[in-house]
Amino acid sequence: MFPALETELKQETLPDPYEDFMYRHLRYYGYFKGPTCLSSTVRRQIEAVSRGSLLLSSPLLKSRQLLHNDFGEVNPRLREPRDLFAFLPSSGPLQAPRWPIECEVIKENIHHIEWIPPQPEYFYQPTGNEKVPEIVGEEEGTVVYQLDSVPTEGSYFTSSRVGGKRGIIKDLAVTLQGPEDNALLFESRFESGNLQKAVRVDTYEYELTLRTDLYTNKYTQWFYFRVQNTRKDATYRFTIVNLLKPKSLYTLGMKPLMYSQLDADTHNIGWRREGSEIKYCKSSTGDGQQPFYCLTWTIQFPHDQDTCFFAHFYPYTYTDLQCYLLSVANNPVQAQFCKLRTLCRSLAGNIVYLLTITNPSRTPQEAAAKKAVVLSARVHPGESNGSWIMKGFLDFILSDSPDAQLLRNIFVFKVVPMLNPDGVIVGNSRCSLAGRDLNRHYKTILKDSFPCIWYTRNMIKRLLEEREVLLYCDFHGHSRKNNIFLYGCNNNDRKYWLHERVFPLMLSKNAPDKFSFHSCNFKVQRCKEGTGRVVMWRMGILNSYTMESTFGGSTLGNKRDTHFTTEDLKSLGHQVCDTLLDFCDPDRAKFMQCLEELKELLQQEIHKKFNELGQDMELEGNWSDISLSDIESSTSGSDSSLSDGLPAHLLNIAREERAGFASTLQKPHAFSRNSKNTSSSMVRNEKPRLNEREKPGFTASCSAKRSTNRSQEPARDMKPSWSRNRYPVAKRGRATLTVYPSLHVYTYP
Taking the model in full, what pTM does it have? Predict the structure, then answer.
């Protein structure tokens, strides 16, 4: 079958060092039994292959590692060892989520259907007669649901296991006394669930307490829980009593989400906005250190004896992501240009996935010339809107659309779809199991405490050494502003002045009913130095953004005063792809037009600022020399938080060491008279800083031209506010894609 190979094997040669290495490697992973130096053995077995034997009867090998060609013949080379990287199995169950050992988890699998409401879901319009609830509490009410043990501040994550806490899962809901008992049965011990306590204060009125992020005493925003034993004709009131933010979109008409299991099963109806008498106000209770705020609403359930769910936003769980990635891994077409790898494992041992998406290149030079785009989501677990935008992006970039194929030809996409799987699994709002906001620790050197962030930054650092990264974007959610917008970083290099604002302006033109350029902000504040966008910008990525997507809806265009659906968010993911093509169009007309618009907008802002200060200034010659940071407001209105310092477990160790040190000081020592001098000579530990690199040259044009076939472009509710044919460009034709041998450059750690 392989005459040249047979001739070569008959000659006496020294063992191939690579061959020896591969057999050592396979033996280490359990695929090979036998000595490492097997030149004669290997020769005999490859000769057996040429005679038709498939090696499978050999006692030395227990692996099916030989590749077959299209004719079913054996190709004598080893396939890539499967256990080098942990990725989803092609068959069988998914890897079950790992929970902290303190968490009880019910055995039921919670699944929701996707559904698009046939009519727009408008904001709630306050009547002025909304009731301000008087918090009763468990002293006068009846506790009908309460989590037994919730790790809060002072405790820290130690270990995890599939299924969480060992032992029998207790039934925390009240026991019904008979068919006439109309008490609701609450549950939240499922993936991404969050509800700590429910108190029944009247027949159809309940006060709810949310669980803070694990190992902290703060961050209450995300809620997601189940109720059973509903009554159709009754009006129920729910009041969440321990929210921490003084401002909320619920004051602007946002409604909670409800899901009826009976409606899903019988009418294929999914999540929908429901609720009346909605009010968000300061609570009469508090913990003595910070005030609480409460959210109250009334609801009428659609059916008797139904199972219903309530949520702050459309849930998207770690299992949802795994199911999606499994479908990609099992798609033979998508597997040619999408490589799924493990970036790292989280504190609890859950996989953080990394996708590399690019079409195979014809030559190594062509592969090396591609620029990179890095996208990530769910660093804040309660911001599930980021996952829906990410899903829309992946749906489009993995499709057979000509524009998607063009993007894969000119870019290498590095995608981390869920940066904080632990937080998503346990239903946190903001933190990881370290009890800290990961989006304040991108400069960290604590790999073991913040593995997801450390490995992401390391992956991008390696990527920058290999190729130019054109754009970085981290998808988030926002609880106080409507619409979708970006936070970026002002560029101080006059050569690229205002260039970081071009992509957001283009996106606002492509999604005029969802994206607000006027809500964008490009100021870099000191308190945001640890965020992903600032760290990546300082590493040399000019276009480094945080995308903020509202939990509410739009105030723009024909979507004005309506809630966003999952389809709206997914369509924005499509439009991110569309804007990338506009941004890199070889015809620079659109890019230059946006720069001119930005200069005009900036002039208007400068004049406005001087008018507010009561000053007049001639800006014809030197207006562009004014610092942009001086005229731009801060991003303090964002959902950001300050860094909380060390992770919870290291903070506990520090406390113990301080306590031990204090007790030591109480004892008399011979050198006590010198202690003052000793303490004053202690060296202060300074935080490590990343070396700032000179920003690479920015070139927006690419060699490939964009397809004019718009038949498979993203569906939009509105046309872009600029004309696609505004510029006298050459006809954008595109040849049929040729399938080339796969060439992938792996840049994972």
Answer: 0.77
